[in-house]
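lol ok so funny story. i was supposed to be doing the assay writeup but got distracted and ended up predicting the structure for this chain instead. priorities right. anyway since i did it might as well share w the group, maybe its usefull for someone
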Amino acid sequence: MIAALFFLAAAAAARPEAGPEIVVANEVLLAGGNKVEPAMQDFVRRVEAVGGWPAGSLRGKAFARPADALEYIRKNKVAFAFLPVHQFVQGRVPLKMEVLGRAVGLDGIQRGYWGVARNEQRPYEHVEEYRGLKLATTEVDDPVWLRTLFEGNIKAPERHFQLMPVSSGAEAVAAVLARKADVALVSQLDFDPLKPRIERKVDLAWVYASGQIPPPPVVAIGKWARPADRQKMAAALEKICKKEGADACGRMGIMYIQAGHAPDYDTIIRKYESYR
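and the output, tada:
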């Protein structure tokens, strides 16, 4: 009995103290299927290695549907997150989010949202002038964000459009081609592969382009990120994806991470707040 107690005590002593949790939300993870969870764990281990946390102390959760991320962050008191911009502007004030850096993906730094329709005689050169259009997009969870993307020209997107929620930009485009939707609103990453078809007028045309959107921010969540952990994360950011960390980042849809750049988000924050 005494030996068993000593064994349990030794095991407890060997286990690292639980560290902060990290959330990564990225639609590109939809293609990862059951490989996403092990990829997330490799990413977390990489953050530990360059940030100085004990091995096995950090926890991580990945979301292929970013709309689910904020609820999880609130319920589980998550300390750090790699978030799409629309989740950041929603949660910034209530969760006291602070931008530590930016996580740049395959779509790079010059990013936007694009409205795509079938390449046929179109009655809507300006989508804001036509009520009732069926809009397929992943962004239906926040009307204020839709107003931001449409530069405030559509006062109530949930009433102007017939909103069709989809899980990905590819699904939105498929809905347009199948005549289930009139317009697909897609991100830069989904739009770029469509450009040759649009330029050659094969089957698609673009009908809207948003203003520029910054890359996904890396945020410390002020309600739960301890100052010491915040300092570690800020110092580790630019090391995470370099050298042997490139694979761990790539499988999470991240090409490289840059520390700082908080002012990059000032314009989109002002726009979002002005359209509330």
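The chain has two domains: 17-108+214-274, 113-209. The first strand starts at residue 21 and ends at 25.
back to the writeup now i swear
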